Amino acid sequence: MITTINEQQKSGSALLVGSPRSPSSQSPYLMVSVSDPAKMGNGVQAYISYKVTTKTNFPEYDGPEKIVIRRYSDFVWLRDRLFEKYKGVFIPPLPEKNTVEKFRFGAEFIEMRRQALDVFVNRVALHHELQQSEDLRIFLQADEQTMERARSQETGIFLKKPADLMQIFKGVQSKVSDVVLGKEKPAEESDPEYEKLKNYIFQLEDHLAEAQKHAHRLVKRHRELGQSLSDFGKAVKLLGNCEENPLGNAFSDLGTKSEILSTKLQREAHHLLMNFEEPLKDYIRAVQSIKATIAERANAFRQNCELAEAIKFKEIDMNKLRITRSEKLGEAQHEYEELKADGAEATRRFEKIVKLMNEEIIRFQEQKTLDMGLAFHEFAKGQADLANGIACAWRSLLPKLEACSS
Amino acid sequence: MMGYENQGYEEAHLYASKEQMASIVLADDFSPPSDGSKSFPDDPLSSSQFVDIPTNDTDPLQPSPSKQALNPSPSTIHSILDPPSYAEAVFRSFDFDSVDSGDMNGQDGSALASPSSSSYYLKISVSDPQRELEQSASLVPGGSSYFTYLITTFTNMPEFSGTEFNVRRRFKDVVALSDRLAESYRGYFIPLRPDKSVVESQVMQKNEFVEQRRAALEKYLRRLAAHPVIRKSEELRVFLEASGKMTLVRTTDVASRMLDGAARLPKQLLGGKSLDGGASNMSEVTQPTKGGRDLLRIFKELKQSVANDWGGAKPPIVEDDKEFFEKKAKLQDFEQQLINVSQQAESLVKAQQDIGETMGQLGLAFVKLTKFETEEAIYDSQRACAADMKNVATAAVKASRLYRELNAQTVKHLDKLHEYLGMMLAVNNAFSDRSSAFLTVQTLLSDLSSLHSRIEKLEAASSKIFGGDSSRIRKIEELRETVRVTEEAKTCAIREYERVKENNRNELERLDKERHDDFVNMLKGFIVNQAGYAEKMASVWETVAEETSGYAKK
């Protein structure tokens, strides 16, 4: 099971699996970090590459340490492969593709992306199932050519078209529109607890989206307030030049302090962005990943049902054939056996997904509580520090001002 | 005119989401504002249907944390110059202890406050607007109406004949008062009266307009009452005291009469008897401001000023008061900076408003999230998360309220800047008085010099004729007489000019002193306010940081 996840995930450094901090050569460890973003290429084809460092003693992996260079689409490849292979697991989310901002490649954007990618890879490495993945090993170890080949090979097959995803989601939400459009209503689970979970997930996303929207605005407001304070400070200084000292000095000090506070506000805006808004966005992405898993489960369920039906029909067929003593009976029986095998497989797959999801949801809630707890802490601390700084700065002006009135 | 379009800081009526917040409640101990100020609807404390948050910090801003700072922002500059309303007498703000008690409650916020020496008070209030019909036949058939206002005065000033007065006045009377004061107190920084704003009768009927005008009149009269010299004026006294129709004497300055008709002058100067029934000392109600009498003077002075600017010859005399011109230039610079700061202050207030609003909305979103998680919780981890969220939501909502209050106070303090902007208009008027007085002197000197040269020419021509030229001699006599009279006028004009200069000087001194004090208080108030609210916010967030410290990175 996974222990002290929280700090380790965020820092991207020492990650241990099932044991306390210090890595010893005995107990298995897998430590990953994403760092050193570098702009590559020019113009439209420009992209960012990242250094991915792996420290491990897993037998399948090369040496105690290996460094590879990866780009965003490599991460996407990994995520897609994991999603295919590990149905039922909530695959850690990736930061958005963001094609527009990509062009500008602002420093803040790059840092946010790097941080999110680091978190992603660490979560994968910490997950007791996912860390076993062969694809993970390829991602962490393979040279660039192999990686590129793997990446271009798989995109065609595994990349879900948006239309497919939409269809899946429709099924999941059991919209009446399906009937209206003439499609047969796909088979659905009727487990009330699962229904509750699905509703929870969908509503949660809406709530989180709203919170994130305001968090985003709050970042902007800090910047705006900082800007006005700076402008105000400059104007106040000029006004102070019209006054005799010591009043003139007092104005001048006020102006200077305003400019200092403006800087503090800009800093806090950045801090809010990275440590409060970003975790919220991460939470939303995680919920979206869960939705994808929900869709997979619906798929598996439907397949299972379809096969079960096919088996039943086959049985009826076979009985008919038995009665008429047809030669086709043997063939039919053969097909029947195959169907039954497929059915058993489908049932197994579905049940595995259900089992995994049940575990995952608990893990998810625990993880989220820790993640959000930290985000809240950072938010509160940032605001408290800012406010204290502001109060201090203003109060320091008073002694001189007192001298003016005497 | 400087175009201060709509410089009133927006009403601190800030948050649309306030109504939303009212329905999702966090029970805490902010008490609702009790002054009924319309910016702050009742705090959503009543129904604590949702979450009970046992906060144990009592808000030191009680009892009335949020006091309205501003009137609604009309577009006329004079109304914008209004000082904030007077709830601050009750408000226990942060700057209460650090501000001289004389400032906040004493003088109705006018820019040049506290006639410090006297303990005489002059308290004026304007109320009870009422519609009345025009008595005399007007050009417009159907009878027009106007509003009158009840002016109530309490005073112990010896100039008044009692201690309490109630009179009814209409806006026309205020205009008359303002005009008379402008005539009598040339060179003084006289507060500007509210705009006439030509309105149609429909607009007049709107309560809002009447209310705005009432408030503006009150501010204006209070400012007059705060001016150490003008409060003792006869004009103000008559306005406040005399019941029935108001009469304000119109004095005609001597120099003006000089320039119009020298012939008429001597008797006026020497005997004080009225010559024509018109311009005299006993006049009835309001006279037209610019009658035919003044036109000649205006024309002459205009001619003179054009000659000064464009004529090749040097003007008769030039102002050489270097100190004054330096002062004037400094004041112009001051005015410019004041405009600048005022604009930036407005942006600052807006930014503070915005951040408070967004913080509130964020809090609200988290309140909803918390409710959701609490209702749907299956796992303990969810409950823990919901509890954390609740703390953050509460803090955010509190912070939002603090921003709002901070802003209301900020507006109040920075409003001083605004008032001084208005003051600068009065200053410019006073400087204009001086310029025009000087122009009068110049004009008279020009007159004199042209009279002298005419006399010279006539004398030269007449001397060529043997035995004298009786018509020319007669003419010369007349001109000499005119010269004599004009000399006296010149003396008067110079005296007037010196008087205006002296008034300017005194007022400038007063402005400097009071500006210094006002600005010190403004800065103190602003700073203490900002610091105080920042400290409160820090405390709110520190609590949450403490509660969530378990999650912190080691």
UniProtKB/TrEMBL annotation, chain A:
Protein name in UniProt: Sorting nexin 1
UniProt region (Disordered), positions on chain: 1-28
Matching CDD domains: BAR_SNX (cd07596), PX_SNX1_2_like (cd06859)
GO CC annotation: endosome; membrane
InterPro entries: AH/BAR_dom_sf, PX_dom, PX_dom_sf, Vps5_C
Residue stretches of biased makeup (Polar residues): 1-12
Residue span, PX domain: 28-147
Domain of life: Eukaryota
GO molecular function ontology, one term from the record: phosphatidylinositol binding
Species, as recorded: Sesamum indicum
Gene3D superfamilies: Arfaptin homology (AH) domain/BAR domain, Phox-like domain
Signal peptide: none
Automatic annotation (TrEMBL), chain B:
Entry annotated with the keyword Zinc-finger: no
A Pfam family it matches: Vps5
Any coiled-coil regions, as ranges: 441-517
Membrane topology: Peripheral membrane protein
Membrane-crossing residue ranges in chain numbering: none
Entry's Gene Ontology molecular function annotations: phosphatidylinositol binding
Subcellular location as annotated: Cytoplasm; Endosome membrane; Golgi apparatus, trans-Golgi network membrane; Prevacuolar compartment membrane
One GO BP annotation of this record: protein maturation
Region listing for Disordered, in residue ranges: 26-78
One cellular component term from this protein's GO annotations in UniProt: multivesicular body membrane
Main location class: cytoplasm
InterPro entries: AH/BAR_dom_sf (IPR027267), PX_dom (IPR001683), PX_dom_sf (IPR036871), SNX2A/B (IPR044279), Vps5_C (IPR015404)
Domain PX: 127-247
Composition bias, Polar residues: 45-78
SUPFAM superfamilies: PX domain (SSF64268)
UniProt keyword annotations, A-Z: Coiled coil, Cytoplasm, Endosome, Golgi apparatus, Membrane, Phosphoprotein, Protein transport, Transport
Stored PANTHER family: OS05G0346100 PROTEIN (PTHR46757:SF2), SORTING NEXIN-RELATED (PTHR46757)
Family under the similarity heading: Belongs to the sorting nexin family.
UniProt name for this protein: Sorting nexin 2B
Species, as recorded: Sesamum indicum (Oriental sesame)
